[in-house]
């Protein structure tokens, strides 16, 4: 998994390759979208939709895990097998992509180019960008950095270390299911219920490990964790609040708070409420902290491999 982390950090997923063949996550997403259209009948009773959603989860998991297991079984032993596993796992990490997307928000924001910053942040968050002022843009970017540090880096690493290539493939399937159908909307509340619960379970440990890695990377682990502990449960997600709260306390800024989506306004409590709003400089500091956090995770992964 260390090789996968390194390859992702250096190369990411090249744009030319994406244009030619897409990306493993987009392949999973295409299957989910097809099952959603075929099996999620708005007229069906809620119980039937839950069962159909569970069946969709099983199909998607099988489509991701079984090929990964077969490939793993076919790999040679020794260092060659380890190296090939790293090469195959690298596309399922999103560390480089996350860094680059958040950095694209900081650059126009630092120039005072709010339209450019709104466009950049709309690529990584679901809220209405037109409603965001400069602090709102910075908060949205940092919240995405915190949450996706878990979803895109630590959680795939965790499941990869635990279960190898099938583990990381299965995790990405679960996470993509949640991002597409795990919403409490009229269409997906029942159909996506199993996907959402499974994603909560899959991220429970990684989210807290991400908070710990952010705290260690800050150089003030006790203070950051002490501040994050009461704030993390305020988040509507049982997991996302942990890395977000740790990031907020490590940077000394407030995050979360009220926001506007296409479906309307949502009132959410502040995280690190007494701190100032972030700005473009805070995004830069957050990105530097993120890189140190990934380094902490790499060291931990190496120690686990040695043990």
UniProtKB/TrEMBL annotation:
Converts cobyric acid to cobinamide by the addition of aminopropanol on the F carboxylic group. The chain crosses the membrane at residues 50-71. It holds the Pfam family CobD_Cbib. Belongs to the CobD/CbiB family. It comes from Halovulum marinum. It is a multi-pass membrane protein. The gene is cobD. It is found in: Cell membrane. One of its GO terms (biological process) is cobalamin biosynthetic process. NCBIfam families: cobal_cbiB (TIGR00380). This is Cobalamin biosynthesis protein CobD. Pathway: Cofactor biosynthesis; adenosylcobalamin biosynthesis. One of its GO terms (cellular component) is plasma membrane. Its main location: membrane. Keywords: Cell membrane, Cobalamin biosynthesis, Membrane, Transmembrane, Transmembrane helix. The keyword Ribonucleoprotein does not apply. Coiled coil: none annotated. The keyword Protein biosynthesis does not apply.
